[in-house]
Write a structure and sequence with these properties.
It is a single chain. The chain is of the alpha/beta class. The protein folds into three domains: 67 residues, Orthogonal Bundle (Arc Repressor Mutant, subunit A), CATH 1.10.10.10; 95 residues, Periplasmic binding protein-like II (D-Maltodextrin-Binding Protein, domain 2); 102 residues, Periplasmic binding protein-like II (D-Maltodextrin-Binding Protein, domain 2). It has an eight-stranded mixed sheet with strand order 4-3-5-10-6-9-7-8, sandwiched between helices. A two-stranded antiparallel sheet has the order 1-2. Helix 1 crosses helix 3 and helix 2 packs across helix 3. The longest helix has 24 residues.
Length: 301
């Protein structure tokens, strides 16, 4: 490895690791995906080791990548602290409660999990980061996060604690006119109907694919969307129906005008909060306890 590290390369690597892909990192950094990929290759050459393995949604950090990511977390955490101090923010304030969230969990559900923390008399500041499971767990183990929210069990080798924070059935949602047309013959009506898919490899996609196969349904795939907010935006515009946790049915109706078409039979998503308990002081442990008491309940039709 060279004697000095290119700061921009380190930021590009850190952002790719946090967001899970060069495409997502490019959106965050306002650069093109080829630029990010080229800079990442240069960085790996400089470091002298591969930092990622696998492709697409299966991309994950190598051992060298995990080590470098821990250092990058410390660097950019210190950068934020320096910025805050010189921006005139008060010193001696309690640090924020740092939460990592996988990109497959709907933002409406993340808000439901975290809202009770903000309702407390001494509400903590929140720092919420979205990213891939691998990157978030690396940050957690490096003590850069206090808790990570997942919609799937942690990968093998995780040394912390896993807290169940709820579960929800899954259903298809769409605008009222589309739901009205498809509801009478559901689920057979899904064949040739416009469907918006979550990304391959995600928990929601696996559940949806299994349900379609069991019922021999062949929908018309309109789009595959990595971002859950974009998925809801396409559904709101009437481009197709989308699978969402039933627990967000009320919020989806109020905020996006989406209605429940029908249940994805047999599909249920479980949600987990992961912690490294030794990193928590009493106040932080209390906040995790509040988070772990949240229950995702099914909403009526």
């Amino acid at each position: 490895m060279r004697s000095s590290v290119n700061y921009n390369h380190l930021r590009y690597f850190w952002t790719v690791a946090r967001t899970g892909s060069a495409t997502s990192a490019a959106r965050v950094l306002h650069l093109t995906q080829p630029t990010i990929s080229a800079q990442l290759r240069q960085f790996e050459t400089s470091v002298g080791a591969a930092l990622f393995e696998g492709e697409g949604r299966d991309r994950r950090l190598t051992e060298a990548g995990r080590l470098l990511y821990r250092f990058a977390e410390e660097v950019f955490s210190l950068e934020r602290e320096i910025h805050d101090r010189f921006a005139g923010l008060p010193t001696g304030r309690s640090r924020p409660f740092r939460v990592g969230v996988t990109d497959g969990i709907p933002k409406l559900l993340v808000h439901r999990f975290l809202a009770p923390l903000l309702a407390r008399e001494r509400a903590p500041g929140l720092l919420v980061r979205e990213g891939s499971q691998d990157a978030l767990l690396t940050s957690l183990e490096a003590h850069a996060l206090d808790v990570v929210l997942l919609d799937a069990p942690a990968s093998s080798g995780f040394q912390g604690r896993t807290h169940g924070v709820g579960e929800s059935d899954v259903a298809l949602f769409g605008i009222p006119s589309l739901v009205r047309d498809l509801k009478p013959d559901f689920p057979q009506s899904i064949t040739n109907a416009p469907l918006l898919l979550p990304p391959a490899g995600s928990v929601m996609r696996q559940l949806l694919d299994a349900w379609l196969a069991v019922h021999a349904l062949e929908p018309r795939i309109v789009a595959e969307l990595d971002d859950t907010a974009l998925l809801k935006a396409f559904a709101t515009a009437g481009h197709g129906v989308a699978a969402l946790p039933v627990a967000v049915a009320s919020d989806a109706a109020k905020r996006y005008g989406l209605r429940k078409l029908g249940s994805v039979e047999g599909a249920r998503v479980l949600y987990y909060a992961l912690t490294i308990d030794r990193t928590l002081d009493d106040d932080m442990a209390d906040l995790v306890a509040v988070l772990s008491q949240q229950l995702v309940t099914e909403q009526p039709d």
